[in-house]
Amino acid sequence: MSVQKKPERSWEERKAALFNEKKNGYDQIDDQTKARMEDYCEGYKRFLDMAKTEREAVETVVGLAKAQGFVSFERGSKLQPGDKVYHVNRGKSVMLAVIGETPLSEGIQITAAHIDSPRLDIKPNPLYEDGEIALMKTHYYGGIRKYQWLSIPLKLHGVVIRRDGTSVRVCIGDEPGDPYLVIPDLLPHLAVEQSKKPLGTAVDPENLNLFVGTCPFPGAEGADRIKLMVLDLLEQKYGITEADFLSAELSAVPAYPACDVGLDRSMIGGYGQDDRVCAYAALQALFQVEKGGRTCVCVLADKEEIGSDGVSGMQSWAFDTFISDLCDTQGVALKTCYEHSFCLSADVTACFDPNFSEVYDKYNASYINRGVGICKYTGSRGKSGASDASAEVMGRVRRAFDEAGVLWHVAEMGKTDVGGGGTVALYMANRNIDTVDAGVPVLGMHAPFEVTSKLDCYMTYLGMRAVFEM
Ligand code: MN
Ligand code: MN
């Protein structure tokens, strides 16, 4: 038996070379990057405060884009490399493009995020009076945990189309000194029976009714004096009547602004970070695109939280129409453009939470401060409903991130069969566009107060930039 020679390389070297060990991002960024990250996150928090609904997000995005030189694209207009254009779809989704030197026949680089978030929508016939209180009935939008929406301050945001066709914006709770609305929770003293129910059924969605007033109309008698008072106030302020609720989109959204979280201020807390955190990253990355290379497109979609259906969702032809309008300027077939394109479906993922560690596969979960999380697939019950990105596509995005110095790690939503979720990825992939999911890990996703890490937000922005430079 021969004596074993001393290995030429140490085991530490071998491990570093062979293992996929991800480190805390703070061990890998310098002070300059940290300063840029803080700057970026201040802008992001402002964006969150301005964009509580998809309509507000569109308006905010268009305002920011115009300041960067973007102009509204009109079908038939000519485009030159370096042109920056946008198209708003019915005020609820928006697509932006920076035209490249490379012809559209060679494909485009797309980042796709969504700007709708879970909330409580007002029903078409919402207002009633009970127990000397005026209430508004709601129908929840997206996957909420109903108990989380009780006893928190809420604002009412949206738009009403009046009988005569005119439109009025409603924003209750935005101005300093504005009142908030609330759905009070049941007091624990009387919740003995309710507390025995499973969490998912303890709050009846038909009981998610907003308290909007308690004052009777002066001098009025009989029933509905308080309802009358509320309608009178609404008529005075917005010129609307009860029938106008039918042609309205009003949403109750959390009233508090985005803020720093943690003694070290390393996290951001706020409503609607799924998926405005990726929408903001994609947008800011598009603003950095220089003339040259491929055409870069950022699409910010509505209706992702309820399945991407409908005219403003990612399944809508509105996207195909916009890209084919761009293609028409170069005489390129849409199908040729699509088959050479690449899409990063930018949506949030579930961040490992030690309070609920049992639902995560700890070897495949995303962890805070490790940068952007790349999801090869989402879906549930054996990848059902997923766009399962190919090894080749994963290889491309991984290399692009590495070359750009983007901190990234793998992110699977949770343990197999404990649940799941989807993104717009499959709708992009169904268009014959190579697509992969990546985004910011979120704590308490879909809660009225979601939490992200500043480092992950910034790395996701750098990731979007890398996609536009691929
Ligand atoms: Mn999402
Ligand atoms: Mn979501």
Question: What descriptors fit this protein?
Answer:
470 residues, Aminopeptidase, Aminopeptidase i, Domain 2, binds manganese (II) ion, alpha/beta, 22 strands
What's a quick, concise take on this entry?
The chain is α/β, with parallel strands linked by helices. It has helices at 11-18, 31-50, 54-67, 199-202, 225-238, 273-287, 317-328, 334-339, 391-403, 425-429, 454-469; strands at residues 71-72, 84-89, 93-98, 108-114, 119-130, 133-141, 154-161, 167-172, 209-213, 248-254, 259-261, 267-270, 295-301, 342-346, 349-350, 372-375, 379-380, 408-410, 420-421, 434-439, 441-442, 450-453.
General description of the model:
This protein is an alpha/beta fold and 470 residues long. The chain has 2 domains: 22-117 and 271-468, Aminopeptidase; 119-254, Aminopeptidase i, Domain 2. The protein is 27% helix and 24% strand. It has 11 helices and 22 strands. Strands 1-2-3-13-4-14-20-16-18 form a 9-stranded mixed sheet, sandwiched between helices. Strand 2 and strand 3 (93-98) form a beta hairpin. Helix 6 packs across helix 11 and helix 9 (391-403) packs across helix 11. The mean pLDDT is 96. The structure holds manganese (II) ion (2 copies). One manganese (II) ion binds next to helix 6.
